[in-house]
Specification:
single chain, alpha/beta, Rossmann fold, Tyrosyl-Transfer RNA Synthetase, Structural Genomics Hypothetical 15.5 Kd Protein In mrcA-pckA Intergenic Region, Chain A, 3 domains, 6-stranded mixed β-sheet, 5-stranded mixed β-sheet
């Protein structure tokens, strides 16, 4: 079992998860035995999104190799707001909003990580942060932090240009205290997080070294962008959420199958559990054959997030539309229900494209249709203001397409 365990760092490295690490040799030696590691998730929305998948997948890999992950819901730190990666202060959230969001995040994380029988822990830092005595905290914890050193970290240096308030300045202390609390109570010796958290992770490791005379470690992940430079999880429709009520399994599948050819091998390594030997074979496919690799990526990613049944439904609907557009309108295809009185009057195509969410704006819809990228029931739309009405109904539905692969089914 020892040989298997020490491969965890190697798995992260060969799959592209590691940007920085405190001491790779020490971490590799530490991971020869089962280790408790943690990542924090701020409940600033009711759902996690594709941009959160790298940390989630890293915890899943850790568990697979016999380590114990802690998913830390940052309800306490969310009351302060992390300045990392932001140019302006985050909106202040109420406790009720944070608690509601935290419940949704717990359900989503449970699809990736097994929390049964203590194999993983899900904790909430509000349990120890909310009741801290401020004077005691300053005397016992704050005295170990150098303001000069804090101001050299990337997250604070960036915010100083636009303004950094005092409550945000406390965030590093609170996250460092999280690491110390988890070390003291759960023997947690490894923190993982995005590269913008590097300063906070080092602060926690330094606090434990100063107060407990113990060595702990940190690993950060790179910022994942597509080959076109777009941040992961962003589309013309907005954020790609893990909650099926916000992003349907079909749309989730389509997000992955529509990735650029250049990104497929890298994304297979990051966002699936397939062996690297299989990923390397898929990664060399070119031309028309690359669709096979894209289908594997889309299916595996959707199955991990939404389960096998939803992934099979999404794949079936996608293949049917790809091979024979318009002849089968699967329930897995996104639907838009419209008032019969509204469609009976007729709606210009570009307005309907924006209304149904196929395009983010009317100007985008006009551009796509004008350049020949708009279709109704498999036929190209002639002009951007072509009127679409009841006469376009085919078996009670209208199938719209924008570009090559974005569909929506309109039903009354």
């Amino acid at each position: 079992m020892e040989t298997e365990l020490e491969n965890f760092l190697q798995i992260l490295e060969e799959r592209g998860f590691v940007e920085q690490a405190t001491d790779r040799d020490s971490i590799r030696n530490m991971l020869k035995e089962p280790v408790t590691c943690y990542i924090g998730f701020d409940p600033t929305a009711s759902s996690l999104h594709v941009g959160n998948l790298v940390p989630i997948m890293s915890l899943a890999h850790a568990q697979m190799k016999g380590h114990r992950p802690i998913a830390l819901i940052g309800a306490g730190t969310a009351l302060v707001g992390d300045p990392s990666g932001k140019t302006e202060i985050r909106p202040v959230m109420t406790g009720d909003e944070i608690d509601k969001n935290a419940e949704g995040i717990k359900k989503q994380l449970s699809r990736f990580i097994d929390f049964s029988d203590g194999r993983a822990l899900m904790l909430n830092n509000a349990a120890w942060l909310v009741d801290l005595h401020y004077i005691d905290f300053l005397r016992n914890i704050g005295r170990h932090f150098s303001v000069n050193r804090m101001l050299t970290t990337e997250s604070y240096r960036t915010r100083l240009k636009t303004g950094l308030n005092f409550i945000e300045f406390n965030y590093m202390l609170l996250q460092a205290y999280d690491f110390k609390y988890l070390f003291n109570h759960y023997n947690c010796r490894l923190q993982l997080g995005g590269n913008d958290q590097w300063g906070n992770i080092l602060a926690g490791a330094d606090l434990i070294r100063r107060m407990d005379n113990e060595l702990v470690h940190g690993i950060t992940f790179p910022l994942i962008t597509t080959s076109s430079g777009i941040k992961m999880g962003k589309t013309h429709k907005g954020t790609v959420w893990l909650d099926p009520k916000l992003t349907s399994p079909y749309d989730y599948y389509q997000y992955w199958i529509n990735q650029d050819d250049k990104d497929i091998k890298r994304f297979l390594a990051l966002f699936t559990f397939l062996p690297m030997a299989e990923i390397n074979k898929l990664g060399v496919l070119k031309g028309e054959d690359i669709r096979q690799a894209k289908e594997v990526l889309a299916f595996e990613a959707t199955m991990i997030c939404h389960g096998r049944k939803e992934a099979e439904n999404a794949r079936s609907a996608s293949q049917q539309l790809f091979k024979k557009e318009g002849q089968l309108l699967s329930d897995s295809i996104p639907s838009y229900h419209i008032d019969p009185e509204e469609i009976s009057k007729g709606i210009p195509a570009y307005i309907l494209f924006e209304k149904t969410g196929l395009c983010g704006t009317r100007s985008e819809a006009r551009r796509i249709i004008t350049h020949g990228g708009g279709y109704i029931n498999g036929k190209k739309i002639d002009t951007f203001d072509q009127i679409i009405g009841l006469r376009d109904m085919d078996n009670g539905s209208i199938l719209l397409r924008a570009g090559k692969k974005r569909y929506v089914k309109i039903a009354i």
